[in-house]
């Protein structure tokens, strides 16, 4: 589906050609460039775009199929970039979409898959800065990449906030340890999804500043360096959060072991108390004829008192030891 198509010249919109009029619009404006945005395009739309802009067949095939790892490929003067779009799903886990960007000397094409987050805000911001739009398709490519990376920050912030809350309640009594482990594992999966989007994109942005830079990005290397710095910050946060999750999981397993040890101590203490009572009852329960205690007038109260005294002494001792 075509979202937007605009022709820019000297930083301002001068036309809005359809997919079948892009080549003609470029011929009419030798100094302008076209910015086209598509969402879940049909095969017919991509074929038309390929014909109008002479796009590489292999790159078009990647954009058609989707499910690409973040990457940057060069086809002569044309760049093809794939980036992951992450957004929170209904169950709190990140939903992974994609945006593929074709960058030529006189055009930019963004193809969005499986994501409802559009880039109209990016287009509006770029159009409010015509002096930057004059830098050409390279600046639009930067603006799209910067918008994608900026959407990663709320995701890592949400993970860190949830992790802090978990750490704060981890030592509370009555905590469901299995639920905590499940929550920690869920956070680890969310971080893995974010890391799969960020780490390859670091390699992509490293090719866009310093050293040999594609022609379309030469004039705005500093902007891509800024995106690279943002990605480094996100990756550092991901690594720190992963280490915290590993430590929290180990602490939680230790707490489980401690809880089991306390239960074992309580059971052992009560078993010792009942064992002493059972031993005394067993002694006086033997049916021998010559047992002087059987004929004592106070034999029964004395036996009960001995059992209560031994049991009470054991209970007091275990209570002092913290076993009960």
From TrEMBL:
The chain crosses the membrane at residues 267-286, 298-318. It is found in: Cell membrane. The keyword Transport applies. SUPFAM superfamilies: CorA soluble domain-like (SSF143865), Magnesium transport protein CorA, transmembrane region (SSF144083). InterPro entries: CorA_cytoplasmic_dom, CorA_TM1_TM2, MgTranspt_CorA/ZnTranspt_ZntB. It comes from the Bacteria. Keywords: Cell membrane, Membrane, Transmembrane, Transmembrane helix, Transport. It is a multi-pass membrane protein. The keyword Repeat does not apply. Belongs to the CorA metal ion transporter (MIT) (TC 1.A.35) family. PANTHER family: CORA FAMILY METAL ION TRANSPORTER (EUROFUNG) (PTHR46494). This is Magnesium and cobalt transport protein CorA. It comes from Pelomonas cellulosilytica. The lineage of its organism: Bacteria, Pseudomonadati, Pseudomonadota, Betaproteobacteria, Burkholderiales.
């Amino acid at each position: 589906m075509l979202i937007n198509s605009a022709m820019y010249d000297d930083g301002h919109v001068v036309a809005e050609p359809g997919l079948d009029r892009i080549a003609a619009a470029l011929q009419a404006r030798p100094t302008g460039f076209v910015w086209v945005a598509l969402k879940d395009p049909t095969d017919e739309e991509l074929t038309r775009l390929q014909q109008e802009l002479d796009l590489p067949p292999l790159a078009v095939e990647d954009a058609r199929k989707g499910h690409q790892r973040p990457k940057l490929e060069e086809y002569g003067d044309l760049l093809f970039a794939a980036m992951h779009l992450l957004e929170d799903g209904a169950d709190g886990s990140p939903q992974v979409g994609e945006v593929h960007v074709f960058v030529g000397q006189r055009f930019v094409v963004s193809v969005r898959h499986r994501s409802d987050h559009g880039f109209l805000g990016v287009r509006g911001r770029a159009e409010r800065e015509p002096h930057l739009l004059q830098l050409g398709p390279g600046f639009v490519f930067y603006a799209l990449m910067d918008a994608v990376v900026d959407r990663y920050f709320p995701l890592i912030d949400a993970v860190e906030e949830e992790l802090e809350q978990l750490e704060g309640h981890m030592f509370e009594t009555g905590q469901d340890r299995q639920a905590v482990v499940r929550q920690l594992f869920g956070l680890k999966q969310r971080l893995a999804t974010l890391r799969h989007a960020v780490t390859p994109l670091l390699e992509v942005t490293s090719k866009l500043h310093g050293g040999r830079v594609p022609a379309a990005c030469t004039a705005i290397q500093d902007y891509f360096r800024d995106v690279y710095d943002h990605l480094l910050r996100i990756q550092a946060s991901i690594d720190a959060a992963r280490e915290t999750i590993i430590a929290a999981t180990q602490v939680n397993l230790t707490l489980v072991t401690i809880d089991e040890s306390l239960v074992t101590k309580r059971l052992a203490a009560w078993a010792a108390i009942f064992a002493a009572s059972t031993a005394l009852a067993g002694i006086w329960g033997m049916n021998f004829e010559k047992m002087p205690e059987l004929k004592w007038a106070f034999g029964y109260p004395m036996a009960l008192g001995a059992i209560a005294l031994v049991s009470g002494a054991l209970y007091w001792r275990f209570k002092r030891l913290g076993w009960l």
